[in-house]
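Hallway conversation turned thread

IA: we were arguing at lunch whether anyone had actually written out Cysteine proteinase end to end. Turns out nobody had. So, for the record, here is the sequence (273 residues) and right after it the structure tokens. Reply here if something looks off.
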Amino acid sequence: MAPKKSKKKAPTTTAQDIPAIDNDNEDPLDDLLAQLDARDSRPVVPSKQATNEDANQAESHRKQDAKERFKARQARKAAQLAENYVGSDAQAEAELERSIKEENEDIARSCRELNLRIHEIEPDGHCLFSAIADQLVLAGILHRQEAKYSLIRAKASDYIRGHQDDFLPFLPSPDPPKDINESGLMTPKQFDQYCTLMRNTAVWGGEPEIVALSRAFKVRIQVIQAGKPPVVVHEPPDFNGEPRHTLHLSYHKRLYGLGEHYNSLKPISGSVP
């Protein structure tokens, strides 16, 4: 007589037994291991022949294996994240260094053509005004004792404030326009605040201040930069012929990796400033 078939059904795995797969954070191998961990973490039902001690030991081993697999997965993920971060950071650093090198080469080439050398100015937010102060001393317009960035800031701010009609149409508003009918330019109130900040704080100066100082001191200011044009010239509009003095600056976009910067340019020994 054939033995009777057992009516006991084989254990099945339901959807509740397996955690949901996060496709954004897990790779296929991690998915499989996560499913195995879920099965291993279910309570162990010992057979009638097994002792309680044997069952406890088996469950302990399974839990330990699951923990080790989890730690291994976490370690792989951490290593992958670190590799991606370091690679991206290194690439950005290399690109920045390349840009700085190219910019320095362009400026150095123009300086050689004009027989000028770079005199470093401290990158403290006052660099434009300190560079112009240094140039005014070199030109004999100011004494070294009075050539402070605070004096040059005040001169630029006062000139801009006193010639609002010349500068206001070219100064963008710090606030984005609310509708298409707004010009996007400073209001008179914002213009007044701009002049006050330029005079009394370390806010960076730029082209408006160079134009103002060129007119206030009645000098030509040449700015050497990378790219095209290599030299930008600012001079008062009311000059008849050559101005008495020419000031020389260099403009750097990436010299310190922090933003715009100006240096003073001095004549190479034996050349005419």
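OS: looked through it. The chain has two domains: 31-101, 114-267.
IA: good, adding that to the notes. The helical segments are 28-40, 52-113, 127-138, 149-162, 164-167, 188-200, 207-217.
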